[in-house]
Design brief:
3 strands; mainly alpha; 11 helices
Length: about 325
């Protein structure tokens, strides 16, 4: 009898954001503007780094990969959210839900590891300035990015395969705007202890270890700064740390508060708002943080646009 009641779920219903129906159009326009800002801002950074030879350095190589990750990370959830806000039945197929979860985990973990690579780059630039070009060779930079992709792909695939083995019964309503892994586990009528163990161990390590590595890098940087005179080269390298720390604080602050320090008083609305911070707001702010506070990016923007205007004038 129990087996008969366990029907196969072909789709899930995403409740989305707790917004009144008369306000949906306003919020749809707001989120569309935020998404377009995210896409255009990160594409601009990628293009500038690709087109300007002055930015062909390890730091900007990692930044271009971070921008690509941010663009994809936001694209995993935002188009579905915008579509569901205009839909009478905000549903997502079972396969689509697992696919969204896979890419969400992939790009979230990728961003985390890329932030570690960027912290290591700043550590070498400030603590070993004379050996910077030797240590941060193109081979090492590419290896770090490839390793990040391999590790995140394995991690996302593991969680997705473990989720795919679970059974989902009559309840298919997800109180979130995307297929959150914890929300899906609550809907399952199977034994989820293996999933929870893997999330706690591997998921925790994927979050804690990168965060500790970043903190260690900046502790060593601060220690090095206090020991030596503040030269012009070190000052320039250290100036980029402020932008990086801003991004790290935005990303890890919300993720740690949401997943590692959960509160029994946390409501669904509060969890959704915190999820919006690192899935929507952070990818949108990253281009502004890195461009507005970075002279190299401003200079590259001016040089690229001047070249384009000069080329157009010649052609005209």
């Amino acid at each position: 009898m129990e087996q008969r009641n366990q029907t196969i779920t072909s789709e899930f219903l995403l409740l989305g954001l707790p917004i009144e129906s008369e306000q949906k159009n306003l919020f749809s326009a707001l989120f569309l503007a935020m998404y377009l800002t995210t896409v255009l801002g990160n594409l601009l950074i990628i293009l500038l780094i690709h087109l300007d030879s002055h930015l062909h350095t390890p730091m900007y190589f990692f930044l271009s990969n971070l921008s690509f990750s941010d663009l994809c990370f936001s694209s995993v959830t935002m188009p579905e959210l915008l579509q569901n806000m205009q839909s009478q039945v905000p549903s997502i197929p079972y396969a689509g839900c697992l696919t969204q979860m896979y890419f969400f985990l992939l790009f979230a973990d990728l961003e985390s590891l890329l932030l570690v690579a960027m912290a290591y780059d700043r550590y070498v630039a400030i603590c070993f300035p004379l050996h910077y070009t030797t240590i941060m060779s193109p081979k090492l930079c590419v290896s770090l990015v490839v390793l990040s992709w391999v590790l995140t792909t394995f991690n996302a695939l593991l969680h997705t395969l473990l989720m795919a083995r679970l059974c989902f019964c009559a309840d298919n309503v997800i109180p979130h705007f995307f297929c959150d892994m914890s929300a899906l586990l609550k809907l399952s009528c199977s034994d989820t202890r293996v999933n929870e163990l893997v999330i706690f161990t591997i998921g925790g390590l994927n979050l804690v270890i990168p965060f500790l590595l970043i903190i260690t890098s900046y502790a060593r940087i601060l220690s090095s700064i206090l020991k030596v005179p503040f030269s012009g080269g070190i000052r320039k390298a250290f100036s980029t740390c402020g932008s990086h720390l801003s991004v790290v604080s935005l990303f890890y602050g919300t993720v740690i508060a949401l997943y590692l320090c959960p509160s029994a008083n946390n409501s669904t609305v509060k969890e959704i708002v915190m999820s919006m911070m690192y899935t929507v707001v952070t990818p949108m702010l990253n281009p502004f943080i890195y461009s507005l506070r970075n002279r190299d990016m401003k200079g590259a923007l001016g040089r690229v646009f001047c070249k384009k205007i000069f080329f157009l004038l010649i052609c005209w």
